[in-house]
Amino acid sequence: MTQLGTERPHLPSSEPRRLSGLDRWFKISHRGSTVGREVRGGITTFVAMCYIVLLNPLILGASADITGARLSTEAITTATALAAGVTTILMGLVGNAPLALAAGLGVNGVVAFQMAPTMTWAQAFGLVVLEGVCIVFMAVSGVRERIINAIPMPLKVAITVGIGLYIALVGLVSAGFVTRTPDSAQSTVPVRMGIAGHLEGWPIAIFCLGLLLMIVLVSRGVPGAVLISIAVATGLAVLVNSVFRVEGWGLVEPKVPDQVVAHPDFSLLGDIDLFGGFASAGAVTAAVFLFTLVLSGFFDAMGTITSVSEEAGLVKDGKVEGMGRILLVDGAGALAGGVTGSAPNTVFLESAAGVGEGARTGLASIVTGGLFTATLFLTPLAAVVPAQAAAPALVVIGGMMMAQCARIPWRDLDFAIPVFLTIALIPFTYSITNGIGAGLVAYVLIKICKGKIREIGWILGVLAAVFGVYFGIEGIMSWF
Asked: Which residue ranges run through the membrane (predicted)?
């Protein structure tokens, strides 16, 4: 992807152009962008990730806590939109980065299916708040940034490439282009194309048409290519669904909503019990839950922030511009997720879709956050864009991120296998944390075995040990 943020636009020396207050605050011209690109990128990011407003309630609402209580869909929807809106706007104002936050997929499953059955919802969200406090402390103290800077550049590049594959796979799966093979003795592959090994149906056709249109528009450098493709695919989906009454769209059925305005439900706001979970689930179990939340939130965000910032041209000398402020907001996002009752909020991979549209500054995040805030009252409109219309953006952006492979020193055997493990395990295990952990452990082990312990540094050594505990936590827990 073209690094638009790496060069300052040329201004005639005889008559320098005066920059507006908005431009100066967000450094729009300095990063080679325009207000139009930022707005377009912010809208694109929202369109690509607004599904979380519908998906998070399904995940959190699918489980009951230790008392048998379940969360209402209306309350979770409000909490999800509120937290995403506030934290993404905060990222724009404080972090000045085109990074959007929302309830993290994966960690919301930990909250729903592992934590809630052992404690009340208030206690589970209390642990989420404690996670946020831990991450904020690490950001303020500078520990988090030092850890990120300690990771060798080839492994950072591998994270970007692995995430590119990850978001492409997420897009293909969410569209139904790739599906899991049912467990059976005859199964020889874990995934397959389409529902039964081949492509059929209008939803897949809409996805393919949207993907082909996006590829053509992006390759021709058409402004707004991603957003145009999503809009066209959504329009076709609504039209096809209204004429043929198509099934198989998945979570979102593309249709004109019966009503536009919905009333938010703030009943989960502030309903937390900080330390009750340690009594309900037991001190060791609750501590393991907290450890898992912190570790996953820490490294998932690190990988996403690094890779998306790289695509936006915000990485200089191996460091992300304004990383300290970005990490602080990310930690505050986890805390906000607990306070609102929406699960830990973290930076979303779909931010790359907005970057693909030219977003380079926090103005794009403010646009995205504003749209999430509006969703509090316009939830029905979020249900118009099907996954088949938004998923092509993830596939195309993921493909562009693969270009970073050229920067990896494949002939250096100290990095080759760790880099490969990082790239492979991120999409294969659907976890950024797993990929980063496997790569770090392998890298440290290779250095130790080759007698190059001094090249590791104490930070990477500690990280490798922590990930060793992380990977073996289930076995360790079985001893208690």
From this structure: 43-64, 76-101, 121-143, 155-179, 199-218, 225-244, 274-299, 326-343, 363-384, 391-410, 416-446, 458-479
Please compute Rg for the chain using Cα positions: 22
pLDDT tens column, 186-204: 567 788 888 777 888 999 9
| Domain-embedded: residue 226 | no
Residue 16 neighbours by CB distance under 10 Å: 8
Q: pTM of this prediction?
A: 0.72
Both 429 and 359 in one domain: the answer is: no
Contact 433, 295 (CB under 8 A): yes
User: pLDDT tens digit string along 276-309?
Assistant: 999 998 887 788 788 778 877 777 787 888 888 9
Contact indicator for 129, 335 with CB cutoff of 8 Å: yes
Length of the chain equals 480
User: Which tokens hold the place of 315?
Assistant: 């990485």
Distance CA 183, CA 185 (A): 7
Contacts of 469 (CB under 8 A, 6+ apart): 476
Planar angle of CA 264, 267, 273, nearest 5 degrees: 145
Residue 470 is part of which domain span? 409-479
